Amino acid sequence: MNTYITMNYVILAVLFTFLITEAMSSLSIMYDRKSLPSVKKYFDPVWGVIGTFAVFFVVNTEVLYPSVFPSIDSMYVFPILLATFLFIARNVFLVFSEYVWKDSKISQLLLARTYSIASFAILLVLIIIFLSLITGLGTNSALTSFSISAFVSNYYSLGFIVGLLLIVFGLAFPFFRLEKFKGLSPLMTVIGLALFIISMSALGMIVNYVTYIIAVAIAFTSLLYFLTGKSRREPIFVLIFLSVLSINILNYGRIFGTRSLYSFLNNSAVSSASLAVTIVGGLLLTAMLIFFLYMYKRPDAGMDYSNRYTDSSFEETKIANLYIMPNSNKENGKEHKKGKNKQR
Question: What is the torsional sign of CA 208, 209, 213, 219?
Fold first, then answer.
């Protein structure tokens, strides 16, 4: 195995792990409005890191395979632009949902669900690009155009996508501990896994015992949550990461169906330098994510600042409260007010 290609696969697996967990949060908000606090508690500290990982992967890929990017740009220009637009919309609605003012006609839930639709659509677009890159579905032999109609005309491509989305929905239950009809978790997961694996095999993608072991572990996670009501997010993270990585490793170096990544690999001195930058950058991003999670889980991070600045607080705040006085500002402000009234 080539070190550069393997490292790029690892970054891609991390990126898709975040995107899939974000899709879980999207489906959870759409499915059960009561899951919003739980979803936000997980997603608030990490949503910005996902965009950073996406940029990190794109830059690393462009350095490793510079000769393939002209073909990718010409074939997937519309899906890439659509994903970019949706990504901007996702960020906007997520940020707006954090600053909904009191008595606003726009609810936080409405903005969060709009963000969910955008996030879900991003994953859908990226899955289409990912599957097309591996299998060559929808592309012409000259690698100059991509046809979505040719892509969906193969029913197994739809089976691949639908199966993955069913798995995502099934895993959303144990990930966010959804209680509403939690029997759907193992049902959707098992159906999705069967459809996903059958579609992979029919599309000519390699499936072996590793695929089945990971599939059994995923199904067992959903079943265990249904039976016990207990779950942890860390194993689900690991299973998603291993799933994406195993697909890439089993179909190692494959691109556009029959071509090899080795033919597009940059063999100049830039490759060795990019490996060092990739390792350093990956460590920094990981440290950033850990730091964000640590800051979010600090004891004072759970404080509610939503009512910190209310209308009544502004009414009670006087000019005298802004001065530094021996005692508390509030007390001195009252004393100053009394003194002024006495003079009158």
Answer: positive
